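Practice problem 4.
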């Protein structure tokens, strides 16, 4: 016959094992999310660098074509101003915001969906 204290001890051990499994799963999930966020930040940094050098290249090219240094940079600046104005007017468009949120959610959380 099993003793009550043995049953209690076994239940405590089962609970401890389950708690440890949950802790390990949470740690793994957090590490995965942090790695994805770091990767996203790295991708953004590289994208900014590419955009910066492409902008300088376009500005110097336009400057060379127009025989005026400031005009090339002015036109590139105006191009970015137009892009900014376009983004400003489209910022409240629900389709763009929802698709951006969906992309970030899928990228950061790895496409996992909460099951009901």
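Answer key:
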């Amino acid at each position: 016959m099993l003793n009550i204290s043995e049953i209690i001890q076994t239940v405590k051990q089962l609970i401890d094992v389950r708690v440890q499994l949950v802790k390990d799963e949470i740690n793994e999930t957090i590490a995965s999310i942090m790695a994805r966020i770091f990767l996203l930040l790295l991708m953004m940094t590289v994208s900014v660098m590419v955009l910066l050098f492409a902008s300088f290249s376009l500005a110097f090219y336009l400057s060379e074509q127009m025989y005026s240094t400031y005009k090339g940079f002015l036109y590139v600046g105006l191009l970015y101003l137009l892009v900014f104005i376009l983004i400003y007017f489209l910022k409240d468009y629900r389709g763009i915001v929802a698709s951006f949120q969906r992309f970030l959610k899928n990228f950061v959380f790895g496409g996992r969906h909460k099951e009901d």
